[in-house]
């Protein structure tokens, strides 16, 4: 279990694996690790404590669900978020001492969260000279009728606890080029020069 201040190694230091010619599986696993680190990065910036939890009987069928896809010539990804209204309310940017938030606003907020998460992942991948084209985020209530997890590819799910509220983040990866090479030198240079978090 990782705490909010104990981020995965790939967040603290670029993995040397990213300088290799990699198989489809290893590419997907590296994207998984980077996605996990990006989840920590985003939610720790929302004034809360985040920890990863395991063996949780999570059921998002009655929760807001958001998804957004992105891709390049070498791979395609989709990220998903499933959060209870209580967790969305805690992360919602409240101004002027507003104490009541409509559920419709929270449903819009989960769409924005997925967009921010993808934007930060896109920014992190730019460190390796990987340029993603992103789609438009969408949301529904409960799970979608045609999830990416039923398609050919790699599907990873993470359950996190944010201030005692459990939510789920997912990553779907389809690799088109198993000979993909990530620019390790660019990553090391950008890691040294990296500054504040910025969202797309």
For the secondary structure, the number of strands is: 7
CATH homologous superfamily caption: CheC-like
Instruction: Tell me the distance between the termini.
Output: 29 Å
Poorly predicted tracts of residues: 1-21, 194-200
Number of domains: 1
Strand content: 15-25%
Structural class computed from helices and strand pairing: alpha+beta
Average per-residue pLDDT, rounded, comes to: 76
- Describe the largest sheet: 7 strands, antiparallel
How big is the Rg? 17 Å
Tell me the CATH architecture: 3-Layer(aba) Sandwich
Which outline best applies? globular
Tell me the series of helices and strands, N- to C-terminal.
Answer: HHEEEHHEEEEH
CATH class: Alpha Beta
Q: How much helix is in the residues?
A: 25-40%
CATH topology: Chemotaxis protein chec
Short description:
Helices cover 33% and strands 23% of the residues. With 200 residues, the chain is of the alpha+beta class. α2 crosses α4.
Features:
Chemotaxis protein chec; disordered N terminus; seven-stranded antiparallel sheet; disordered C terminus; alpha+beta; 33% helix
Structure description:
By secondary structure, the chain is an alpha+beta fold. The chain has one domain: Chemotaxis protein chec, CATH 3.40.1550.10. The protein is 33% helix and 23% strand. It is built from 5 helices and 7 strands; from the N terminus they run H-H-E-E-E-H-H-E-E-E-E-H. It has helices at residues 9-12, 24-44, 85-91, 103-126, 184-193; strands at residues 50-53, 64-71, 75-82, 133-134, 138-141, 154-162, 165-175. Strands 1, 2, 3, 4, 5, 6 and 7 form a 7-stranded antiparallel β-sheet that branches. A hairpin with a 2-residue loop joins strand 6 (154-162) and strand 7 (165-175). Helix 2 (24-44) crosses helix 4 (103-126). The longest helix is centred in the middle third of the chain and has 24 residues, at 103-126. The two termini are 29 Å apart. Residues 1-21 and 194-200 have low confidence and may be disordered.
């Amino acid at each position: 279990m990782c705490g909010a201040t104990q981020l995965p190694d790939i967040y603290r230091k670029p993995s040397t694996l990213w300088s290799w010619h990699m198989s489809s599986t290893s590419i997907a696993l590296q994207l998984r690790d980077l996605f996990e680190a990006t989840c920590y990065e985003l939610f720790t910036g929302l004034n809360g404590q985040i920890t990863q939890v395991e063996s949780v009987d999570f059921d998002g069928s009655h929760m807001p669900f958001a998804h957004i896809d992105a891709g390049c010539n070498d791979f395609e990804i989709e990220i998903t978020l499933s959060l209870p209204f209580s967790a969305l309310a805690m992360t919602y940017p409240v101004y002027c001492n507003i104490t009541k938030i409509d559920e419709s606003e929270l449903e819009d907020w989960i769409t924005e969260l997925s967009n921010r998460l993808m934007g930060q992942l896109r920014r992190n991948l730019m460190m390796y000279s990987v340029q993603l084209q992103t789609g438009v985020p969408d949301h529904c209530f409960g799970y979608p009728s045609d999830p990416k997890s039923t398609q050919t590819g790699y599907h990873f799910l993470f359950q996190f606890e944010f201030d005692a509220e459990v939510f789920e983040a997912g990553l779907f990866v389809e690799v088109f080029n198993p000979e993909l090479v990530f620019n390790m030198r660019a990553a090391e240079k950008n890691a040294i020069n990296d500054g504040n978090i910025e969202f797309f």
